[in-house]
Amino acid sequence: MRAGQPEEEGKIFVEAEGREGTKRQLIERVAIVGAGTMGSGIAQVFAEAGVAVTLVDAAPTALQWAMAAMERNWSRSVEKSKRTPAEVDSARSRIALAHDIAAVGEADMVIEAVFEDVATKQGVLRDVDRVAAPEALLATNTSSISITQLAAATERPGRVIGMHFFNPVPVMPLVEVVRGLLTQAETVARVLACVTRLGKTPVEVHDFPGFVSNRVLLPMINEAIFCLQEGVADKDAIDAVMRLGMAHPMGPLALADLIGLDVCLNILDVLQRELGEDKYRPAPLLRKMVAAGKLGRKSGEGFFLYEG
Predict the structure, then answer these.
(1) Residue 222 known to be catalytic
(2) 40 is catalytic
């Protein structure tokens, strides 16, 4: 099985060689459930790649926010001469908004991008499974939860896969493609080809809590929070050490604010519960900040203050 190149705009192909010759399957319609930061970013990159996108969220304000976020991104792209106004108009025209989950019924692939919570994601995937086309792929943008566990909520576990995009989606080049225990090889091949078509770099990993990215990243962020809590250094000093001494583009506390402190806490809880090791225990300061509503950039305050 090998990934093929798209032959026409808006269609993502994969070639599968079998006894009856080569069969081409395509992804030309994608639905995304969840219009938050990740869902809107994923919708934007698919639309820019020429793929028809339906963005679904039950909350009208969420859809309005998502479109406003995309418009801000496109405006900056035009200002920096990365895209022309005509390219932006073309991408915008490919995005449809919907409040009803039934709108995913025509999609070749549905991507779940809701909050990082097992029960919430299972509920969405269960609902999507009932209304999606029988041959449609179901992907989850989870950053830590078992793909096998989420796939078990559906009647098509072989067509369920993880597509872990990184924030901000239009900028970050990596997508972790996560194969669950029952994910079919054909599903993996189609998604790898899809990610490449988006101009991203797919990296295939297996289904372990936190995958590679967050199993390595979150303990570092958590330890930085412990350093702040214990008075080892102040927040600026901690971030400066990692930026200037370790060549990180962003300090761990600023990165936690970007990810969302509530998301960081949920990922650490998953890692501790699933791997059973105390090294993943969330810092008490992190729990306090989440309880206080200081979630990072999205709330205007986390370890640092943000305007607008």
Answers:
(1) no
(2) no
Among candidates 257, 302, 34, 8, which has minimal Cα distance to 165? 34
Choose the catalytic residue: 116, 176, 222, 266. 176
CB–CB of 306/297 below 8 Å? yes
Q: Kindly tell me the burial class for residue 59, based on how many C-beta atoms sit within 10 Å of its own C-beta (0-12, 13-18, 19 or more).
A: exposed
The pLDDT averaged over each successive group of 10 residues in the chain (308 residues) is 42 43 67 96 97 96 96 96 96 97 97 94 98 97 95 98 96 97 97 96 95 96 98 98 97 96 95 94 98 96 92
Tokens 């607008």 — which residue?
Answer: 308
- Give the phi and the psi of residue 107 in degrees, each rounded to 5: -80, 145
Given the residues 143, 146, 222, 266, the one annotated as active site: 143
Boundary of a domain, candidates 182, 206, 230? 206
Q: Which of 40, 77, 146, 214 does the annotation list as catalytic?
A: 214
The H-or-E segment that residue 160 falls in is strand 160-165
Looking at 206, 225, 241, the residue that finishes a domain is 206
Q: Is 214 a catalytic residue?
A: yes
Residues 225 and 169 placed together within one structural domain of the fold = no
Q: 3-state class of 109 per DSSP?
A: strand
Residues 78 and 171 in one domain: yes
Is residue 129 a part of any domain in this protein? yes
CATH number assigned to the domain comprising residue 86:
3.40.50.720
99 is catalytic: no
Query: In 140-294, where does DSSP find H-type helix?
Result: 147-151, 185-197, 213-229, 235-240, 246, 252-259, 261-275, 284-291
